[in-house]
Write a structure and sequence with these properties.
This protein is mainly α and 225 residues long. The protein has 9 helices and 4 strands, in the order ααββαααααααββ. The strands form 2 sheets. The chain has a two-stranded antiparallel ribbon with strand order 1-2. A two-stranded antiparallel ribbon has the order 3-4. A hairpin with a 6-residue loop joins strand 1 (68-69) and strand 2 (76-77).
Amino acid sequence: MSYDEREQERLLQLWRDGETDEEAIGSESETEPEDHIKTEQEISDEDLVAEEKQMYKTCTEKRPFFYLWEKDRKTKWTEYPRNLAVRTRQVDILRMKLPYPKNIAREAVSPLECWVKETDVDEIKAVLGLLYLAGLFRSNRQNLKDLWASDGTGIEIFRSTMALKRFQFLLACLRFDDQSSRADRRSLDKLAPIRAIFDRFVDHCKESYAPSQYPVTIDEKLEAF
């Protein structure tokens, strides 16, 4: 037998041996049970709890269990998750009180009625009085927040009379004329928005105050009477 014939015979024998091994492996795989991998849908709550318990056990075994204390020396924190195998103590359960309407808001039927309080004559007089005081203290051009400041730089009577937001709200809503006809009247009178109350103010000043015999000075300017 030549060398080529012997080489062909050897390769043929190797090929036959390979087929025999594949058949043996195939028969073994048919008899052995397949490993079952749980999908995400098949994982139950019990599996998750068991996994968390194992994680807790692993964390606590790595190093000693310790707490971090708050400044009040009553609240303590830990970096490990709580042990799910132990029931949570009642003292560790936070019970928050839910918000609810009270006072006049209980009878309100719209958000506007809850947040807006109707004004009265006394409150409007208080607003006008604060405006007078602002001029008296030469603060008519000062920021309102500075007048209501509570750090010692403000004026106490302002914040004692009413809140700053209430004062700003009343000023924004204050009207002295009929807004529907203001445009027509303003074309003839620039003081149309306050003409009625301005005339009444001037008349009351004439009735209640008599200037002296000397010329009256207004803003450092002499006006002829």
